[in-house]
Task: structure prediction
Amino acid sequence: MQRYFIDNEDFFIEYAFIKNQDAHHIRNVMRMQKNDEVSIIVDSCEYLSRIENIEKEQIKVMITKKIENSNELNTNITIAHGLVKKDKMEQVVKTISELGAYAYYPVIMKRSTVTLDKNKEFKMDRCKLISKEAAELSRRVEMTKVFQPISFEQILSKSVFFDLCLVAYENEDKQNSLDIVLKSFKSKNVLVIVGPEGGIDQSEIDVLMERNFKKISLGKRILSTITAPIAVTSILAYYFELGITNEN
Amino acid sequence: MQRYFIDNEDFFIEYAFIKNQDAHHIRNVMRMQKNDEVSIIVDSCEYLSRIENIEKEQIKVMITKKIENSNELNTNITIAHGLVKKDKMEQVVKTISELGAYAYYPVIMKRSTVTLDKNKEFKMDRCKLISKEAAELSRRVEMTKVFQPISFEQILSKSVFFDLCLVAYENEDKQNSLDIVLKSFKSKNVLVIVGPEGGIDQSEIDVLMERNFKKISLGKRILSTITAPIAVTSILAYYFELGITNEN
Result:
């Protein structure tokens, strides 16, 4: 069954409209017809629906029933990732959206090799679309929220709203493994900072330590800036959903 | 420090030769000179060495000392992955090589969308090179061994040599989480089968169950054929190296 996130304003309890690229997808890619079934997702709820009318600009669907969907994690995992090139960012966003991450912030860090042009908007549209498509395919009812790049200072300000703030740090030794950190917290909102290609600068680590971030190791091997956020999301999602921490 | 895997036959205890693409990399990309230091890896051992002589075809290095490197996992994780297109395979191999996987087998499965041309060799050279480069960058002393595509029957025959055989299965319920399976095994060699794009066919699952494979869930969300092997390797590597299983 095809699944489409729609905007709240296109949902009218008994019927709804699917628009833009999704309407194009239904009409020209899937070549669906009147009465074919699709699933729509709005405000974290999923509904079975039947195509009523196919127009050029929008598809009208009739809601037939609400679908039970509990595929979201109970813990919100937010990844703050040192700003990297868009192709790498897209690969990370696609994968962590499948894995169930709550949000993704690109963060301008000391060793980021990508710099922002202050006179030009840094367009995240494609990244947001990738997050949406990955969430649809992985049967989520929420997509990973993708934000505009922010400064290191801005992520520090935001960090006060999280129950647990972690930083993946390659020089961290075995004693401070994720496991031990997680055992001591009942976390609902977790923030994880992962460095850009060049890693996290020592001065940034020092600031994070002052702000009560916990350093965690992801293992002895050095992970690339694409692999590290994916690995940490895999491990955290597993931990919070299926792992030992929640069972004890 | 640049790191290069070299062949056993190029290693002579006091000196060694770096050849082919790596020689090119030292000469033309890194523009290194005589007396510059590189690290070489041979037979799972790492050695600090000094460049002695730069020729067109090879670089002669003098071994200065052995480097202690314990970055390999104690558990061998082998991924058997339903045959997918080469770009996807390369992305998986790159990532699991960083994460510490032992071996990667592409497996021809019922729902593989890629078919093999029997009259043509399926070239895995680029995939092997990607595995080597990822292992060098992640500071491993072994690269993930990348094999030619094999049949489903062949992976079944090989499975008898593993202590624990798992299959990632999307319909598996929470009760059979990886956690519970791992708790009951002290595993040295783990094989994990992950399906191709179309997933694993029920008839294949039935055969795997007869052969004592354990079905495992990676969470409630449906993971793509690229993400699933990466997630399972992340979780297993974490588990065996830093997780609870080894501590109890």
